C-alpha cells in the first residue's frame, strides 16, 4: 500500500475494496468534499471524497485548484454519477499548496491568450493536457509509420551554411560580437573569423541533407526543429516549428502525393484509435465554445466527424492551372471578395486555398505543378518550361500543411536554375554533385508538424499546440 499507483492504471483495473495511494493535482473541488485528482497519466480524473471534519483543521484551506496532493484511502464503488469508482480519503498530504488569492489560474473557462501568458501552468488544464498528450501521440505515430515501412530516421543538422528554401528567412548563428565584429578589406563582416569559418544559420529545412541520405539509404525521413525568421504574426506561423521530411529515391510526384495522403491519414487514424477520450473532450470543448456564435461562423462538422470524413475520402488532386480557373469562376472572385489577385503566375493566398478546400471540395486538396517563378530552385522543371513538379497539401480550416516536390535530378537543368536565381553555386557544390555521380529521380515533402497537430486537435492557434511558442517579439519560457 505504500506504493503509489498511477490514476490511469487505477481506473483500468480498479482494486475495489483495497487501500490505494495516489498523487496528483486538483483539477476540480466541489462542495468542500469532492476532489477530482489528475496525475497526467491519462484523460480521466479519480474522484476523492474527503470528510474534512476528520482531517487537520488547516487542510481545507490548502486544497485549492491545482494544489498537489498525495492521498491514501480506500477504493470503493461510487454512488454518484459520472464515475464508477472513487477513493474515500484517509490521509492527505499536501505536496504543494496553491494560494488561491495569488494563483493566476481559476477553475473556470479562461481565454487562450491568458493561458498562453501563463504557459508554465496551462498544461494543468484539461484542454492543454489533452493537446500535449495528442502531440506526443502524433510524434510517436510519425516514427511508427516510417519505421514500419522501412524508412531510416535521419538527423539532419540544425546549424547549416545553406538556405534550403532560398527565401532568406534565417536566424544567424555566430560567436562574433555584434558591436565588435572583424571586417574584411571591403568593410564587410569577416565570417572567416567566425566559429565555423563561414556564415551559418539555423536550418529552415532538413531536405537538402535528406536528399543526400535518400540517394544512399533509399527511403529516409527527418523529424526535427526548423527555424524561420519570417515576420508573420498569424495563427499558422511559428519562428521555431517542427517538420517531418520524408525523401524517397525513385519516387515521382505522383508517388509523393500518395505518400503524403497515406501518411496524413495514418496520423489521424492513430489518434482516433488510441486517444479517443482526449479527442472527444476537445470536440465537446469546440462545440461549447461555438454555442454563442452565428451559424455561419461555426465549423461545418464536429472535430471527430471532420477527422473521420478526411479518412474516408480521397484527397482531391488538381493542378495549379486548374485551381486558378476554378477560382476565377468562383462567386467570391466574381463579387470581388478576394483581397489578393487571382491570376496565373501569382501565388495562391490563404483565402484562395481556403475557398478551394472549404467551399469547393470540402476536403483536403493537393495542388501540383506550380509556376516555377515563386517556387524553390530544387523543384523538377516540367516539360512546359513554365511550371515545376511542386505539390502543396491543403487542409480544411488551416490551408497548407504539406509542401513538397519531385526534385530536379538533371544536372544541367539544376545548374541553370541555380544560376538564373542568383544562388552562389559554390555553396551548393555537394548538392550539385549528387546530380553528377549516381543521381536518381527522387521526391519528398515537408509536413508542418504543428499544423498537423492543429488539425487533429481542432485548436485554432498554432501557439496552443507547441509547449513554448516562439513568435516575433516573444520567446518567454
Ligand atoms: O513548404 P515549406 O517551406 O517546404 C519546405 O521547407 C521543403 N524543404 C519541404 C520538403 O520538400 N522537404 O514547409 C513545409 C511545411 C509547410 O507546408 C508548413 O506546413 C510548415 O512546413 N511551415 C510552417 N509551420 C509553422 N510555422 C511556419 N513559419 C512554417 N513555415 C512552413
Ligand atoms: Mg510551402
Please describe the structure with a list of short key phrases separated by commas or semicolons.
five-stranded mixed beta barrel; 477 residues; eight-stranded mixed sheet; OB fold (Dihydrolipoamide Acetyltransferase, E2P); alpha+beta; BirA Bifunctional Protein, domain 2; 22% strand
What does this structure look like?
With 477 residues, the protein is of the alpha+beta class. The protein folds into two domains: 7-108, OB fold (Dihydrolipoamide Acetyltransferase, E2P) (Beta Barrel); 124-169 and 204-464, 2-Layer Sandwich (BirA Bifunctional Protein, domain 2), CATH 3.30.930. The chain has 14 helices and 16 strands. An eight-stranded mixed sheet has the order 6-10-11-16-15-14-13-12. Helix 4 crosses helix 6 (253-274), helix 4 crosses helix 14 (449-457) and helix 6 runs antiparallel to helix 8 (303-312). It is globular, with a radius of gyration of 27 Å. The mean pLDDT is 96. The structure holds 4-amino-1,4-dioxobutan-2-aminium adenosine-5'-monophosphate and magnesium ion (MG). The site of 4-amino-1,4-dioxobutan-2-aminium adenosine-5'-monophosphate has 23 residues, from strand 11, strand 15, strand 16 and helix 14.
